[in-house]
Specification:
The chain is of the alpha/beta class and 195 residues long. It is built from eight helices and six strands; from the N terminus they run βααβαβαααβααββ. It has one domain: Phosphoglycerate mutase-like (Rossmann fold), CATH 3.40.50.1240. Strands 3-2-4-1-5-6 form a six-stranded mixed sheet. The longest helix has 16 residues, at 29-44.
């Protein structure tokens, strides 16, 4: 498997350290610049195929679709030449979405402590909420569908699960891996690393 993963560019929620999860929050100007820069990086890299020879896939959320279109444009491709896959939607933080962890700690300090003891399996309150372990099951289904070299725009949580699944990073370490918005992750077979 050859897969290039790009995290969506910065949003105001990212800047404010708010849990955005499955909320559809748009990119900010910094995020748009990050997306363009990632597209320029791709265009300048010696790749295994021409850019238009890759499958291009994005999470269907607006921040990932806008990132994808800016990446493709900056790389010299038409912006809409990609498909979306709902398996790539970000981890849902349920009732915590829109809040910072400090705000959550004010009303639910016991849950913050529980999360700190085991972030990979912790599921916030709310019917839609997911743990990283649950998200990893979705990621597995996406990975099973990858049958040709692919460039993908997704979310920090999705990319963390790739470190656990492909990079064999232990669960709790994978749950806290820093996922930059201005770099590209290359997965080639069982090798995983930032470009």
């Amino acid at each position: 498997m050859l897969l290039y993963m790009i995290r969506h560019g910065q949003t105001d929620y990212n800047r404010e350290e708010r849990l955005q999860g499955a909320r559809d929050i748009p990119l900010n100007d910094t995020g748009r610049g990050q997306a363009r820069a990632n597209g320029q990086t791709l265009a300048a890299m010696p790749l295994e195929l021409p850019l238009d020879g890759f499958e291009w896939v994005s999470s269907p959320m607006s921040r990932t679709r806008e990132t994808m279109e800016l990446v493709r444009t900056a790389a010299g491709l038409v912006p809409d030449g990609y498909r979306t896959d709902p398996l790539l939607i970000e981890l849902s933080f349920g009732d915590w979405e829109g809040q910072t962890l400090s705000e959550v700690g004010e009303h639910s300090p016991h849950l913050i402590k529980e999360r700190e003891r085991g972030k990979w399996r912790f599921r916030p309150p709310g019917d839609s909420a997911e743990s990283y372990a649950m998200l990893a099951e979705r990621t597995d289904k996406f990975l099973a569908s990858v049958d040709r070299p692919t460039i993908c725009v997704a979310h920090g949580g999705v990319i963390r699960t790739l470190f656990q699944r492909i990079g064999k990073v232990p669960d709790e370490d994978a749950a806290v891996v820093d996922i930059p918005q201005d770099r590209i992750l290359k997965i080639d077979g069982g090798q995983i690393g930032w470009i």
